[in-house]
Specification:
The protein is of the alpha/beta class. Helices cover 27% and strands 19% of the residues. It contains four helices and nine strands, in the order E-E-E-H-E-H-E-H-E-E-E-E-H. Helix 2 links the parallel strand 4 and strand 5. Helix 1 packs across helix 2 and helix 1 packs parallel to helix 4. The protein is globular, with a radius of gyration of 15 Å. The mean pLDDT is 94.
């Protein structure tokens, strides 16, 4: 991982991953009619916390969509492992797989090696969450190096509701140079 963070207010990089149940997913582009996108990077099938987090994302998805925000989730797992985990979640959002190390580095994610072959068979990204606004810029970023340190989605939803309300004129935070 490079030492420089993906900066709030900077353009979100164009990253394309294969979609589990459909076409490739361009992480930086929300699907119409939505104009913002929530991108969740999760560790993979070996992580029960991730499975629970994806289920929570599915639960808040209708409220996100009311705010004009769609969601996608991606891991480094291959298609078969992704399919097994996602069958348990049954999400209403697109799921991608095969996130590469180069793409993880582009997002400035923490990358871990498996502890054993039983855990997984390849390096994987630790959790990351990005909210991309209608200008294609990073509105919110949260990057963690541990599976248990990630934003609570109900709290994130409250914050996004506040940000999306034009009366609040809320700027992208963390942009002091």
């Amino acid at each position: 991982m490079t030492n420089q963070k993906l900066q709030a207010g900077s353009p979100f990089p164009e990253i394309i991953v294969p979609g589990l149940d459909g076409p490739d997913i361009n992480l930086s582009k929300p699907d119409a009619p939505y104009d913002w996108r929530l991108v969740v990077i999760y560790r993979g099938k070996h992580c029960p916390i991730c499975t629970r987090y994806l289920s929570e994302l599915n639960a808040v998805l209708p409220e996100l969509k009311k705010l004009g925000i769609d969601a996608v989730a991606i891991s480094a797992d291959p298609k078969q492992k992704t399919a097994v985990q996602i069958a348990e979640v049954q999400p209403d959002f697109p799921v991608g797989y095969d996130l590469t190390i180069a793409q993880m580095e582009q997002l400035r994610l923490y990358i871990s090696d498996p502890r054993s072959p039983e855990e997984t068979d390849r390096p994987f990204a630790e959790p990351g969450l990005f909210v991309i606004n209608d200008a294609g810029k990073v509105e919110v970023v949260d990057i963690s190096n541990a599976p248990f340190a990630r934003p609570e989605l109900r709290s994130m939803l409250m914050g996004l509701n506040f940000i999306r309300n034009p009366e609040n004129n809320y700027p992208i935070r963390g942009t002091h140079a």
